[in-house]
Amino acid sequence: MRKFWDFLQLAGQSILHRRMRSWLTVIGVFIGITAVVGLMSIGYSFDKTIKEQVSGVFGVDTFIVMDESTFGPGAHNGGGATEYALDLDLLKSIEGVKVAAAVRERTGFVQGQPKADGTVLQGFLPVSGLSPELMTEFESFTGKLEVLPGGRLFEPGDIDVAVLDFEISQRLGVTVGDTILVAGDGDAELNLTIIGIMAPPEAAKEDSGSGFGMQFSGGSDGDTISVPYETMDLLWGPADDVLITLVRTEPNYNVDEVADAAEKALNDRGSEISAITYTDISETIGTMTGIISAFLAGIAGISLLVGAVGVMNTMFTSVLERTKEIGVMKAVGAKNSHIWTIFLIESGLMGLVGGIVGSAAGVGLSSLGILLINRLTTGFEVVSVINPLLIIETLFGSFLLGAVAGLWPAWRASKLPVVDALRYE
Amino acid sequence: MALLDMKGLTKNYQLGKVIVRALRGLDLQIDKGEIVAVMGPSGSGKSTLMHILGALDVPTEGKAFINGKDLQQLKEAELVVLRGQTVGFVFQTFSLIPTLSAQRNVELPMIFQGVGKKERAKKASALLAGVGLADRTHHKPNELSGGERQRVAIARALANDPEIILADEPTGNLDSESGEAVLSLLKGLAKKDGKTVILVTHDPEAAEIADRIIRLRDGCIDTRKPKGSLNREGESYA
Lengths: 425, 238
What we know:
The structure holds 2 protein chains of 2 kinds. Helices cover about 55% and strands about 15% of the residues of chain A. By secondary structure, chain A is of the alpha+beta class. Chain A has a 6-stranded mixed β-barrel with strand order 2-3-7-4-6-5. Chain B is an alpha/beta fold. Chain B has one domain (about 30-60, about 75-220): P-loop containing nucleotide triphosphate hydrolases (Rossmann fold), CATH 3.40.50. Chain B is built from 7 helices and 10 strands. Chain B has helices at about 45-55, 75-85, 100-110, 115-130, 145-155, 175-190, 205, and strands at about 5-15, 20-30, 35-40, 60-65, 70, 85-90, 165-170, 195-200, 210-215, 220. In chain B, strands 6-7-8-3-9-10 form a 6-stranded mixed sheet, with helices on both faces. The interface between A and B is medium-sized, with 25 and 32 residues.
């Protein structure tokens, strides 16, 4: 170990002696490291930002139930959720489940009020069934749902009521207190009293928060008729058309365990669903950002390879021009392993200096890149995060890169026969 | 047994397809405290002999004992230890490490022997003072004159307190004044400190400090009487 410090000094002095060439070599390494650290830091910042946003929506006690093909490995993700069958009461009865709220959707025949001239507007429109708890318990998912003054949203126990999107209320010519007719399967049909009109998009948007809330069909724009979840049963029977279910667990229950239990119970009952917790989503995001980061870093890695070849070239030149010096060192008692170590440290040091400069520049590059991304995009603020582990790994890795690039030249130096080396001019 | 004992020393080199017979059955004994000058024309085998005397190389045939150790029986690593501890080299071109100060150059052999930092520094300073360079310790080789560089090289050769100093043309690149200073230093090492000094040289003046002159010719010791001024009393032809 004592010798190591001496060799480190010898190697350092040799690098400083060939300042120009050493710096040029270091620049080769540093460009590669800058690219790798910069791109990976951007990837890491994205990962962190997205996960934080998702965890803000989810909290630690919530999971969602979706069709099993919608999320996870092999998900088609073609666009929006796939409908699935659900026994909401069974879900609510599972141990650890505190609240469960679901959304189901159908297209139904809807008829408005007769107008002054006697015409009645009617047609097939999307009808959404919403659990009342959706508005009270899961605002972080739905965003703030607002109705125009004079109206209200659903409350537990509501049956023969409906909340209309602003646009469709205008087209149907109805307002709070009026009734509309909605027809379901077979002979089922209900006269529903309108209890609220959704605030039009412009008014709602101002307070919609992060913008990461999930968009439901029963949102604030479009032509959806929203009714209480139970009302859907009366019109279309048991739910086989659920888009999404949100579940909050009781305190002191592990959300992942409850989600697993729920998934099993529901699938045993014939549903084909996945219960997705924050852990699942976070893993999926991690995999995605990880793949993107690795891909980018891989491309940047090519420039690192070029840097390594530069180190190797410099070291070979160094060995050649110091042949006599190597001979002298061996004559005064240096072992082959000593020569090998000195040259290896020397090339490793060049890598390390490239790593230090490159890490600093890479962090700068990533901050600049994120600043630019935030400038160019709206509604999504990426927070620039520096991953200390990445920096440590980079520094270690860059020393290793230099050392590996120097392996062959150092081996050549150590194997020089002392007599030949001394004769070398 | 003599400190250096060479018996039937033969060394062949392969140079391309040609075999060069550098030494051809040479016998030589050198005792402790002796100053021996090895002389001879180019190609006579001086350098090859010096490499073997310094444990840098092993003979093809014959026996080479340094301090009682048979070179042919030693592994590469043991040869390194032997020369690191027993032999100090002084080269014609000084061969100092250009990136290191005089002080660090003198410390170098001690670094390879694993001598501690403080001890090393103390000894190097003392050695440099001994060769009259106490005030030049922090100068790099390119800031020193030729004579000063060669004195640094002598200090370096003494770093591990070796019994044998091997000097290859130590005055070859020096003016006469510096050369004399270097020679008197080498003489002092033998006479005061009891070191064995072997000079490989072309320079008749350098050879004058020697107790004994060995003349090589075609890889053998030349036993013919030399001509000219070097023929003086006390010279032995081995």
